[in-house]
Amino acid sequence: MQDTKKEGDKMKNTMKKPVAIPVEKLRPFAGHPFKVRGDAEMNTLIESIQAQGVLSPLIVRPIENTDEYEVISGHRRLHAAQKAGITEVPALIYALDWDAAAIAVVDSNLHREHILPSEKAFAYKLKRDAMAHQGRTSPQLGEKLLTVEKIGVETGDSKNQVLRYIRLTHLIPELLDLMDEGKIALMVGEALSYLGDKEQYAVLEQCEVNDCTPSYAQAVEMKKRYQGGNLTADDISEILSREKANQREMIKIPTEKIRKYAPNADAKQLEDFILKACEHYRKFLIRQRNRDER
Q: What distance in Å separates the CA atoms of residue 256 and residue 251, rounded to the nearest whole number?
């Protein structure tokens, strides 16, 4: 029992050099805004850790009254280590309060190359609230706006851009997913975020029915009607059923119907394959017609 206590004290007092911490004693940061995705980059990281171990230490903070730790930086490395079967990972331990930890979580992840709109939205909100809360129990609007300006300076986004991203945290998860998939633009998402949840779900339903997403003009019209108290489900249906100026007639063919003709082709190659097949068939019809006319 005494040895366990000594080891715990040693961990909590370590600041400058990494210590090995069992993965079962590590917890993700509460409210962590960045997704840990099982994509190709994650598979590469898992393979690297299997071969070399975790080379870059995680940054963690002690969880009060426990022998566990909350991860500040290194959520992806921790996930990859668990997938690789690693039982201990190196970590630097820092005694941070919640506000400082929240800011560190955001700052340690925003440098990543691929950041989803939803991740940036909740990250900016988390950092704004933590910065505004430092030293005060009820941050005022003016203080929050000041922190937004600071975030903009640190990240290279304008104050208005930071505010746009923070507005996205008012979107329902399904619309946020469409933004992450690149199907809804930032300013469209911002306009939709002013609608209530009921109206946002009505928008989502019409997107599925009409196989479309709102244009900026449509989103702004719905926002203005909602703020005026006169946006109904029928209004949303009527607005989203309109043909957009840049809308073109499209023919959709299920991929599985053509995959057997080009099993190893990617999306661009499939498109080229279909166009060449159409051209070949067009020439065949012309030759057939010429024979019939003789």
A: 15
Using CB atoms within 10 A of its CB, is residue 231 exposed (0-12), middle (13-18) or buried (19+)? buried
* 3-class DSSP assignment, residue 244: coil
- The 69-73 sheet, strands edge to edge: 19-22, 88-93, 58-62, 69-73, 26-28
Q: Mapping DSSP to helix (H, G, I), strand (E, B) and coil, where does residue 229 land?
A: coil
CA-wise closest residue to 80 among 48, 52, 56:
48
pLDDT of 22 above 80: yes
In one-letter notation, the amino acid at residue 263 is P
**CB contact at 8 A, 209 and 176:** no
- Residue of 75, 82, 61 whose CA lies nearest to 28: 75
Beta-bridge partners for 90: 20
From first CA to last CA, the distance across the chain in angstroms is 101
Q: Is 92 helix (H, G, I), strand (E, B) or coil?
A: strand
Cα–Cα distance, 277 to 269 (Å, whole number) = 12
* Distances from the Cα of 23 to the Cα of 55, 66, 82, 83, 280, angstroms: 15, 15, 7, 11, 60
Residues 6+ apart with CB under 8 A from 199: 222, 226, 231, 233, 236
DSSP structural state of residue 109: H
Residue 218: how many other CB atoms lie within 10 Å: 20
CB atoms within 10 A of CB 236: 25
Amino acid 294: pLDDT: 61
The amino acid that residue 287 corresponds to is: R
* pLDDT tens profile 121-147: 999 999 999 988 775 544 555 555 678
H-only helix segments in 73-196: 75-83, 98-109, 117-133, 141-155, 159-167, 173-180, 186-192
What is the value of pTM for the model shown?
0.71
Q: Which amino acid is at 275?
A: L
For residues 239 and 222, give the distance between their C-alpha atoms in angstroms, rounded to a whole number.
8
